[in-house]
Amino acid sequence: MSEGKVSMCEKKNDCEEEQSVADPDTRYPDGTVKLRNPHIELMDQDILYHIALGSESHDLVEMFGDVKFVCMGGTPNRMKNFAHFIMEEIGYKLPTGTDLMDISQYSYRYSMYKVGPVIAVSHGMGVPSIGILLHEMIKLMYHAKAQDPVFIRIGTCGGLGLEPGTVVISDQAVDGLGNYSYSVPILGEVVKRPAKLDKKIVRELKALSSVDDPYETVVGTTMCAEDFYEGQGRIDGAFCDYTEVDKQNYLEKLVKQGVKNIEMEATPFAALTHHAGIKAAIVCVTLLNRLKGDQ
């Protein structure tokens, strides 16, 4: 049942594989998403509880069949603002008298907006929250018969040796124990799924940066923590059983291992999109340099 453990000590080149050839387990010949779950096809209706949609209650092909990009970030407000930004960038015009609608407003969990071929959806905070959303967004792409959608997580993070405002494009995702994988208990056993991101998209995103940008753009490993405080080596939580020196030694060790930033969603995002055969990328902006403080 386990899909293997990938250790931080393994060579970076081992993770350089790109999803260049469609996997028949995750793609139909026309490029539409195929699920690794034979049970879904046998269901009368698949209810996507947390985004307030259903395969029979909604015409998902009509609503989402043209989707090319699924962009996700933490908060509803951030993604609403992002949807408006995308409208301006691609010149998308809403019909007169209408406004952007939160498609998932009645789920009371996530917020989702659609601007032409782009979905902007909030994923909440942390591994469980983004994991739930990813299951349902991947299923949504399947029901919508979307062809070769790309998933991008946009968010905030703590930088390691990077000034606030630095843009970090993740080329790898690692957990707090140094594993380049996402571990989840399934039926009493721990399953480890490789946390891989699409290298071609990483290169394309980096190529968009310019020396004239008022900020630096870097590429590197992102660490996904299970917790905001102790899991990230902070000393400002309600509990702390280590010293400032312990914290600094840990963070400097991460820097030596190529870790550029710390956040709380990278490993499930990378692992579940890779498992689904969906090309994906993570782009975050640093709010602070963790080597200089926690707040």
UniProtKB/TrEMBL annotation:
Ligand binding (phosphate): R109, R153, I154, G155, T156
GO CC annotation terms, alphabetical: cytosol
GO biological process: nucleotide catabolic process; uridine catabolic process
GO molecular function, one term: uridine phosphorylase activity
Gene3D superfamilies in UniProt: Nucleoside phosphorylase domain
Region feature Disordered, mapped onto this chain: 1-30
Amino-acid positions noted as binding substrate in the UniProt annotation, renumbered to this chain: Q232, R234
Domain Nucleoside phosphorylase: 68-286
Annotated InterPro entries: Nucleoside_phosphorylase_d, Nucleoside_phosphorylase_sf, Uridine_phosphorylase_euk
Domain of life: Eukaryota
Family: Belongs to the PNP/UDP phosphorylase family.
Annotated protein name in UniProt: Nucleoside phosphorylase domain-containing protein
Organism field: Dendroctonus ponderosae
